[in-house]
Amino acid sequence: MTTTLVKETSPPAAAGAGTIRRPRRRGRVVALLFALPALLLLGALVVYPVLFSVGRSFFDASGTRFVGGENYAEMFRDPATLKAIRNTAVWVVVAPTLLTGLGLILAVLVEKVRWATAFKLLLFMPMAVSFLAAGIIFRLAYDEDPDKGVLNAAVVAVHDAFEGTSSYPTARARDGQGLTKEADGSYRTAAGVSPGDTVALGLVGVQPKDLPAGAEPAYGAAARTAGPGELRGVVYLDFTPGGGGEQGVVDRRESGLPEMRVEAVRDGRAVVSTTTASDGSFRFADLADGSYTVRLPAANFAPPYEGVSWLGPTLVTPAIIGAYLWIWTGFAMVLIGAGLSTLPRDALEAARMDGANEWQIFRRITVPLLAPVLTVVFVTLVINVMKVFDLVYIIAPGPVQEDATVLATQMWLVSFGGGNNQGLGSALGVLLLLLVIPAMVFNVRRFRRSQR
């Protein structure tokens, strides 16, 4: 028997490495082919516009003459741009802070609500509304006319409930009919009166349909005579419906003006006051002898309270921030609530066992443990508010557009909204990009750190 020994040989190491590299290389090529459409889209919609804007910012308005950094210098010389930078700073400081705080408070409180899911859904629903629709909604809500703006309707209702309102804002006295107008808007009798006299104070400028309900004819009240120590009178509408009548005389069909404040004045001081009855009559009893002046205070003729000018130069930015809070509070609440659900319950229970109250648990345990989530929410909102455009452009009326402008709206106005200076507009866009990039880098690093 012959035994043959066969020597085993191993393949060259280089050949084995090449065999392994080929599938890897093929996998990278396949992955690149799948990612290529997205990369092309990203380049066309993001990279190219950024590079083009950077290049365009060094040219003049027409784009034909190179001006270097002139557009960047012009940015900080233009008052409108400086106001946009200031308003953007207000947005960055106020809106994310309020949203993060509201989101944290609501997330903690919702955990204790029985219908927590329905409550979260209700608060998150504004996120489904576009900024355009939300802007239109709040433009109507902030309308200064109480008959249109719901906020001013509520403000006027509360004001009138406590302060009252004048029933005769348009009333006035005829010239030469015995009443003199004072500098403060009140009316007084031109001649002095004494106890035992009866005075008739005629006013015009009130539409019969605007008279208070229950107003009665003043003729009977004018016919009454005053007793000893008594001063009587009537305040009436010196106008006869359908025409006719005599000026300065109370006719049978002329109405009294009820609820009118009347004062008896002596030596410049109101001695006594009263309110007219439904027929416009008033009566001062037990007056001391002497000469008096009958006065109708200015409050009788004060214009009605119209509410707050929400979209005026002073309040337009806070009003728009309020609309922004309405939209994004649900977003902050849901993200913080997700972080809250991952907190170790044993730490909270241990604190309760040690006698800590809910406020101490919230301040010393919940907030510190949620710090990473709160930071991410805050930085995300900072990035978002730097780019806010729709709400500012839609809610702010034309006359106060400059008072509410932020960098995004200023960039659009300078480039396309009448300025037609796309060089300066591109410089504003580059400035906005430079402000957003640090926040984006910070957020990306935090995400990577949390994944590790």
TrEMBL record:
<feature type="transmembrane region" description="Helical">
    <location>
        <begin position="89"/>
        <end position="109"/>
    </location>
</feature>
<keyword id="KW-1003">Cell membrane</keyword>
<keyword id="KW-0472">Membrane</keyword>
<feature type="transmembrane region" description="Helical">
    <location>
        <begin position="121"/>
        <end position="142"/>
    </location>
</feature>
<comment type="similarity">
    <text>Belongs to the binding-protein-dependent transport system permease family.</text>
</comment>
<dbReference type="Pfam" id="PF00528">
    <property type="entry name" value="BPD_transp_1"/>
</dbReference>
<feature type="compositionally biased region" description="Low complexity">
    <location>
        <begin position="11"/>
        <end position="20"/>
    </location>
</feature>
<feature type="domain" description="ABC transmembrane type-1">
    <location>
        <begin position="85"/>
        <end position="443"/>
    </location>
</feature>
<keyword id="KW-0813">Transport</keyword>
<feature type="transmembrane region" description="Helical">
    <location>
        <begin position="423"/>
        <end position="444"/>
    </location>
</feature>
<feature type="transmembrane region" description="Helical">
    <location>
        <begin position="361"/>
        <end position="383"/>
    </location>
</feature>
<feature type="transmembrane region" description="Helical">
    <location>
        <begin position="29"/>
        <end position="51"/>
    </location>
</feature>
<keyword id="KW-0812">Transmembrane</keyword>
<dbReference type="InterPro" id="IPR000515">
    <property type="entry name" value="MetI-like"/>
</dbReference>
<feature type="region of interest" description="Disordered">
    <location>
        <begin position="1"/>
        <end position="20"/>
    </location>
</feature>
<dbReference type="Pfam" id="PF13620">
    <property type="entry name" value="CarboxypepD_reg"/>
</dbReference>
<dbReference type="InterPro" id="IPR035906">
    <property type="entry name" value="MetI-like_sf"/>
</dbReference>
<protein>
    <submittedName>
        <fullName>Sugar ABC transporter permease</fullName>
    </submittedName>
</protein>
<dbReference type="InterPro" id="IPR050809">
    <property type="entry name" value="UgpAE/MalFG_permease"/>
</dbReference>
<feature type="transmembrane region" description="Helical">
    <location>
        <begin position="319"/>
        <end position="340"/>
    </location>
</feature>
<keyword id="KW-1133">Transmembrane helix</keyword>
